[in-house]
Structure formats: structure tokens, C-alpha cells
Write a structure and sequence with these properties.
By secondary structure, this protein is an all-alpha fold. The chain has helices at about 1-10, 15-20, 35-60, 65-80, 95-120. It is globular.
């Protein structure tokens, strides 16, 4: 929602970048609605959360380590995906510092929220 809000206020297409599938061969030629693109994004996001949770359980991280780890992974994902803006004319230019900063802020927020969720243990304060 953060990136959608940023895009609606600034017209910097960071939410479009978030949902963009122009670089995926099987999907790039389809005209997908925002709801379908968002659904695809959620499937990937939930899948990532399960993978991270599995890894965290295996490594037996403590709460603070979980939060830091998830934020780092989220920021790395943001760094790796930002260059996909080169593969679409609908997304912001790769040279847009504001787009990059908003994009990374959105990934930090996601990492912070997911880190708090994954660090929750029943009967403990979050």
C-alpha cells in the first residue's frame, strides 16, 4: 500500500514496478488487470515468507536476529528487482533516484513488518 500511495501522490511508477510482469516471458504478452498482477505479487510474497520462516526455524534465530535478517533479505530483493525497470516502458527510469529511494523504503517497510510477524512466538510480546 505504501508504494501505491507514493505513486498516487508523486506519479513515480513504483507501484507499477512492484506489480510489473513485463519481463516474464509467459506473462509479458498478456493484458493483466491490476488485481491479477497484485495476486501474482502476493503469491510470490507469501512464498518468500514461507521460505524465510522455514530457514529461520532451522537456524533458531532469536527475535532481533529474525527482524534484521528479514529486513536484509527484503532490501536485497529490492536491489535485485529494481533493474527490471529497464525491461518495461511502464516503470520508472533506472536513473530515477526518487524511484529507487521509494522502492527501497517500500522493501524496508515490508521487511520490518514481515520480520515482526515471523518473530512472533505465542505468549511473548512482539
Amino acid at each position: 500500500m505504501f508504494l501505491k500511495l507514493v505513486q498516487s501522490i508523486t506519479s513515480i511508477k513504483v507501484y507499477t514496478l512492484l506489480l510489473n510482469v513485463d519481463y516474464i516471458p509467459l506473462l509479458k504478452n498478456l493484458k493483466l488487470s491490476e488485481a491479477v498482477e497484485f495476486g501474482l505479487h502476493m503469491v510470490i510474497s507469501i512464498g518468500l515468507a514461507f521460505v524465510l520462516n522455514f530457514y529461520i526455524i532451522r537456524k533458531d534465530f532469536h527475535k532481533k536476529a529474525i527482524r534484521h535478517f528479514v529486513i536484509r533479505v527484503s532490501l536485497i530483493v529490492g536491489l535485485l528487482l529494481f533493474p527490471t525497470t529497464l525491461l518495461s516502458e511502464r516503470t520508472p527510469p533506472i536513473t530515477s533516484a526518487y524511484a529507487f529511494l521509494f522502492w527501497m523504503a517500500g522493501h524496508w517497510i515490508y521487511g520490518w513488518v514481515l520480520g515482526r510477524v515471523l518473530s512472533f512466538k505465542e505468549g511473548e510480546r512482539v
